[in-house]
Design brief:
By secondary structure, the chain is mainly alpha-helical. The chain has 10 helices and 6 strands, in the order E-E-E-H-E-H-H-E-E-H-H-H-H-H-H-H. The strands form 2 sheets. A 3-stranded antiparallel β-sheet has the order 1-2-3, with no helix packed on it. The protein has a 3-stranded antiparallel β-sheet with strand order 4-6-5. The longest helix has 27 residues. The radius of gyration is 23 Å and the shape is elongated.
Length: about 280
């Protein structure tokens, strides 16, 4: 069995069929438990997720009904055998017992962590493979077919950040493997999807220049400058400005060497200390 949280919520049976509870709040209850697999989730946390700060008086009884409906679905659709107690009641709440391999978001996080370790160890192809395997699990925003409350919204934001990190790791591994030029189409798509992410813009500028496409690299810088100025009233970070300067004036005898292996690897933590000038003639 497999529980998919990234994208539409799905329960995949051993036969490959897709199952979904008929009640959206049952989906949300299961999803909340699956974000903390094998941990007791307090009933009050479930109530907060389902109704926020204005729960009905019958909230605890209603949650018990949702848990019962979920158990009945697992039983009636034969998603578990008779010996497995998948969904259990434990004071002060409930716990869902699953393996790491049965929840897509857990597999996703583990693969990204592995990619980070492999990159640190210099195992570049393994890092690229792990990061791409994680990204292949991404089917869209978390629980896109289910209304969510505060806790699940926070989890969705977290997973989106992990996805960005996976993209960064994959691109960095490819760069170190000498595949930077091949990443240009993907980077163009990423700067469109994440227009305020300077890391992606920086990598596009760098890849274009290393590919001998200097004019396009400068155009990419100017595009970033306009976006930040229009949206935030800011200028590109010092790192991006230094990159632009090296595109314009490569150090004598070095060609388009640009930045060192570790530069621009970490995600930016905000737009601060902006001192750049617009694109120079």
């Amino acid at each position: 069995m497999r529980f998919n949280l990234m994208g539409p919520f799905e329960i995949i049976g051993d036969d490959g069929r897709v199952h979904l509870p008929t009640t959206p709040k049952v989906c949300r209850t299961l999803a909340l438990l699956l974000t903390r697999p094998n941990e007791i989730v307090a009933a009050d946390s479930v109530i907060q997720e389902l109704w926020g700060d204005d729960p009905p008086r019958s909230a605890h009884a209603t949650v018990q009904t949702y848990i019962h409906q979920a158990r009945r679905m697992f039983r009636d659709r034969r998603l578990t055998d008779g010996e497995r107690r998948l969904l259990a009641t434990h004071a002060p709440g409930y716990v869902i017992r699953v393996t790491d391999e049965e929840v897509d978001s857990t597999v996703f996080q583990r693969l990204v962590d592995r990619a980070r370790t492999e990159l640190d160890q210099g195992r570049l192809q393994s890092a690229a493979d792990s990061a791409r395997a994680a990204l292949a699990l991404w089917r869209g925003p978390m629980l896109s077919n289910v209304p969510v409350g505060r806790a699940l919204t926070a989890r969705a934001v977290h997973l989106e950040e992990v996805r960005i990190r996976a993209l960064e790791l994959a691109l960095e591994a490819d760069r170190r493997l000498g595949r930077e030029r091949g990443s240009i189409p993907e980077l163009r798509s990423l700067v469109h999807d994440f227009p305020l992410n300077e890391w992606f813009h920086g990598r596009l500028i760098r890849a274009l220049h290393r590919a001998g496409r200097r004019a396009e690299a400068l155009e990419a810088y100017q595009c970033l400058y306009r976006i930040l100025d229009t949206e935030l009233g800011l200028e590109p970070s010092p790192e991006i400005q230094r990159l632009q300067s090296e595109v314009l004036d490569p150090p004598p005898g070095t060609g388009p060497s640009l930045l060192g292996p570790g530069d621009l690897l970490a995600p930016y933590d905000g737009h601060r200390d902006r001192v750049a000038a617009p694109l120079r003639a």
